Amino acid sequence: MSNIIYACARAKAKESNLLGESRLNRMAESGSVFDALKILSEVGFGGAQPEDPGDFESLLKNETESLYAFIKETCPKDNVIKYLLLDSDYSNAEAIIKEKHLKIDSAPMLSPNGTYTAEFLREKIMADDYGSFPKTLGEALILCDEAFVSGNYDGLKINAIFERAKFKEMRALSKKEKTLKELFRVKADTANVTVALRGRNYSLFKDYFIEGGTLSDDDLKHLSEDSFDAIRERFSTSSLKEYIFSAVDDAEKGKPLTEFEKKADDFSLVFLSKYKYMFEGIAPYLLYVYYKLAEILNVRLILVCLSNGVSAENIKRRLRVSYAG
After folding, report:
1. pLDDT for 2 beyond 70
2. What pTM, to 2 d.p., does this model score?
3. Domain encompassing residue 145
């Protein structure tokens, strides 16, 4: 218990260095990457400022690696560490399996922030040696090998194999941690709503749905096939009403996947924020980690948009939910 208390205290202390809505809005309004970087320097984001303002990727890389180093150093529970690092492990494995079969360079797509190093993953995947990985990842790699060898593959299918495997492992890792279990259900539900509303064909996309959420197969069938008004009526009292209604509005307008992803990320963080004033368990630690992940995404979005002359108003509209102090 003392380790959890210590880890949460460390995370809580680091919240004071989060940029927060005010600084992010100032960055969006700054008018240039150079001026936005000045604001980042106020909290030491990413370390030393680059000589060339256009070289801001180094800052983002440093800040991301710093966050994952903090997780590995301070998180007292192995299952929570693995849960938080899964995105990197599975995206790295997906990049390397494509390199293996399609002969493309995976290096630009690899992250150093997973449980396994990229070098270890490459060595094992290239040798068809999957015994060192959890069963879920090993099975995903075998399915991908089979798809590539048979020629029965496309980008969506390969990505779906890894997504389903990742969520399956996340579910297993979250079972003994109440907050993590609740967060997983939210993530599974929002992922399933996205698949249903983008695909709009239950029989075609049913194999892409994630197990472990609160939505039933019948719910997902209605989301996939009903009219948008009928969906609103069916889910008018659901705990997911806010997300579903927002996602339905986007689907109705034909908005791109990025809008769904943004809202899904926002919904997870809003869910976690209910633990803002809780000082027991792992919740305060998770809340800091997800605030920081959202902050890094927001900083990247702002700097890229400023580089491309996007207006402050449009930048702010695209920002994800962030730390409010």
Report:
1. no
2. 0.91
3. 78-172
